[in-house]
Amino acid sequence: MGAGVQIVINGILIGGIYACAGLGFSLVWGVMNIINIFHGATIMLGAYITFWLFHLYGIDPLVTVPVSMLTLFLIGYAVQRILINRILGGPLFMAIILTQGLTLIAVNLAFYLWTGDFRSIRPPYATWSLALGPLVVPFLRLIIFVASLLLTALLVVFLGWTKVGRAIRATRMDRETAALMGVEIEKIYALTFAIGSAIAAGAGSLIGTAFVVEPGMGDSFLLKSFVVCVIGGLGNMGGALVGGLTFGLVETIGVAVFGPGYKDAIAFILLVVILLIRPEGLFGREYYAR
Amino acid sequence: MVVLEGEGLTKVFGGLTAVSDVRFNVHAGEIVGLIGPNGAGKTTLINMISGLCRCDRGTVRFRGRDITSLRPYRIARMGLARTFQIVRPFPRLTVRENVLIGALYGTRAYRTREALARATEVLEFVGLADKMGQRVADVTQADQKRVELAKALATEPTLLLLDEVMAGLNAKEIEDVMRIVLRIRAAGASILMVEHVMKAIVGVSDRVFVMHQGRKIVEGRPAEVLADDRVIAVYLGSRFTKR
Amino acid sequence: MGGLAGGVRRGVTVALVGLVGAVVLGSALLWANNYVLRLLTTILMYAALAQAWNLLGATGYVSFGNVAFFGIGAYTVAILMTRFDVAFVAAAAIGAFLAAALAVAVGFPMLRLKGHYFAIATLGVAEAVREIVGNLEFAGKGKGISLPVMDAEITEIYQYFYIVMLLIVLGALLASHLILSGRAGYALVAIREDEDAAQMVGINTTAWKLSMFGAGAAINGVGGGAYAYWMSYIDPVSAFNFLVTLMPLLMALLGGVGTLWGPLAGALILEVLAETAWSHFLEFHRTVLGAMMVLVVLFFPGGLRDVIHLPQARLVGILRDLLRRYGGARRWWC
Ligand SMILES: Nc1ncnc2c1ncn2[C@@H]1O[C@H](COP(=O)(O)OP(=O)(O)OP(=O)(O)O)[C@@H](O)[C@H]1O
Ligand SMILES: [Mg+2]
């Protein structure tokens, strides 16, 4: 019983990070209909920024979150503005190949500059934990969970209450109409991509604090983000939160049952099961044929 | 003889009941008009009949067979063809290739060469013979509507569902299409036709039924239906009806 | 289109190209040294994989998980040959069958997904299969499997695998020809253009997509099996290398998706480029590859056709356009 509750707690705590990672991916996909493979590399870069700031200057990982967010906001803006905006409207998978190419470059350079060593970020409070009877809540995980929720909330507030946020949502609903209403689509796209990248980088910083940091770490988070997004529905912020928590739980329980070697397999099987039941995603809308 | 028959057809999207308990039929050799204001559920009904969207309740019978849960391609091969309201041709293929594909796969009988001949025949029938070699994406909207029609015809349907094939056409083009529709019927097919162009509905259909907010509200001969208070009410608001 | 005469003319062209290709490739056994033979064998392997990808690619579905089937083939051959003494050819056939079976099994739910959903779900398949195989005791876990090495002179071994890959490519070419240029080709193109509309004219889209996915997987399985025997050692990293998904996809894209010869041309060009990248920028070869992807997408999204069918006038036009676009840095930012 106690072990079961512990697993649920762990699952929820992990789920917060997954939600946060999935959020940026979902935003970009939902608004621009782009699968951003570079999302994984963005998470990796965010994690490295936190690692180096912590390792070289001893800056607290949580303090570095805004730094990595801002850095990747700028990178994301440039990538969309200079590259991706040029190929919108072409076949869907062009953007996949483009962002895959960028990922190869980024991962290769990270490997060259920082080697393939597994690094970890261990702030002084990494070993603290809260004990509630037989249950243990690692302090660090809790902090990360709360930070993830804050980031999520920040994005929701931004999209809901700011002018740019509204423009982004309008573009998502109907690009042509938004353009007619005076929204500058290209700029909004670049901003959306930049915001998606910033959120992913923030998630990356938190992920780096909880997991190992290495150049190839983005791959598995890319897959996870996708699963979260499918569970939660495209571009649906609240859905991403539900998706992240659900996925965190399923994965933690799956690992408890089948062993840690099957993490990604569990993600995939969950994905297929969901898609079997609802091809348009759990919270997605039914397909509308005219 | 009844060719197509729907009973208790219902489709719910989230909280919206797009089609609600609709019952209708189409007899052999008949042209039935389906009208109703925007959002009445006409296209949804067509989608349900042609298998593109699941029915939540109700059954569709085509030539005596229950086709409710059949996959769309099976329904198409049984001889039930449709057009899309927003045309959906194969844009990067030529006009003739579009129709050829209909002939190749809609009927199991054709080999490529026979299908080509058949495609040419259909294109002549709808008056597109001179545009055969052009890419569909390059022809006018009005011609794309004809390609859509020709594609459906090439499958040799016994029943044709037309979803607003005349929308956006000018008066002359509408008359052309009306003539084509009558000739299709003369060739032996039955037709269920969704249309907003009342002149066309009155001109060609034998019987009309009206949908409003997912329900079938009136059915009868075209002239009677258009004069019906309930129909005027849903189109123009109740202010215009006789008290 | 062009009717009978066009068909004959095309037939003659195909026969001519085939003849020249056969002479060059056949005579390679006489003139090529081991290095060239190895390069040619690699090109042939990728040519087969690119053709395999192209079958489903013709329907507009983009698979990012082909390496799953390649790996299944590789592992099947490795396990059957080491543990059960099965002959290579039989083992490769079984590998192809298993790969196709897996493709049909996962394809059935996944091919209902449209566009992006499908692409990334296949990515998941590859990840999951790699992980599962890497955990299996009888597949050597992470340590991999060493296959029996052929008892022959080194040059003979090179020649053997060259011929094996050549046969696989010919098989794939024949299959692609039968599929793409016949009645079936129209079904695939129709699916690519508009899947709902294709169903509405009686095309069983699911069956077509599944069989193309399965056929592509079978070719991948054979290719993977041959690769395993050729390398005589495989582990999860080499058998499920993501580049084996990526390169064929790029090759087909560069050569022209849905065409018969495109994937072959793409394989030739990209593999020669990749080999150059390997030998000149060992550490950065992935960067070079990534840059190639970005450039292809930005400048030749239509593949080689964009390059070949460019009359000079258009080339000048494009250069002018590039200058206009990229000449002034200001336009990049605002
Ligand atoms: N997939 C869907 N998801 C949600 N709502 C839908 C879907 N398809 C249709 N609807 C809704 O169902 C209602 C009926 O739509 P439908 O397209 O059938 O109307 P229609 O009678 O064809 O109208 P029109 O004359 O404008 O073509 C509309 O309110 C529409 O918004
Ligand atoms: Mg409609």
Question: How are the elements arranged and paired?
Answer:
The complex is a heterotrimer of chains A (290), B (243) and C (334).
Chain A: H1 2-32, H2 38-57, H3 61-83, H4 93-114, E1 129-132, E2 135-138, H5 139-161, H6 163-173, H7 175-180, H8 185-210, H9 218-232, H10 237-258, H11 263-277
Antiparallel strand pairs in A: 1-2
Chain B: E1 2-13, E2 16-27, E3 31-35, H1 42-50, E4 57-62, E5 65-66, H2 72-77, E6 80-82, H3 95-106, H4 112-125, H5 141-154, E7 159-163, H6 171-186, E8 190-194, H7 198-204, E9 207-212, E10 215-220, H8 222-227, H9 229-236
Parallel strand pairs in B: 3-8, 3-9, 6-7, 7-8
Antiparallel strand pairs in B: 1-2, 1-4, 4-5, 9-10
Helix pairs in contact in B: 3-4, 3-5, 4-5
Chain C: H1 3-31, H2 34-57, H3 66-83, H4 88-110, H5 115-135, E1 145-146, H6 154-180, H7 183-193, H8 195-200, H9 205-231, E2 233-234, H10 236-239, H11 243-255, H12 262-280, H13 285-299, H14 304-308, H15 312-327, H16 330-333
Antiparallel strand pairs in C: 1-2
Helix pairs in contact in C: 2-6, 2-9, 2-11, 2-12, 3-4, 3-5, 3-9, 4-9, 6-9, 11-12
Sequence stretches where pLDDT stays below 50 over 5 or more residues of chain A: 286-290
| CATH class designation of the largest domain in chain B | Alpha Beta
User: Which of globular, elongated, flat, extended, rod-shaped describes the shape of chain B?
Assistant: globular
Give the helix tally of chain B.
Answer: 9
Give Rg of chain A in angstroms: 19 Å
Biggest sheet of chain B, open or closed, and with what strands and sense?
6 strands, mixed
The radius of gyration computed from the alpha-carbon positions of chain B, rounded to a whole number of angstroms, is 18 Å
Kindly give the count of domains of chain B: 2
- Tell me the quaternary state: heterotrimer
Low-confidence stretches of chain B: none
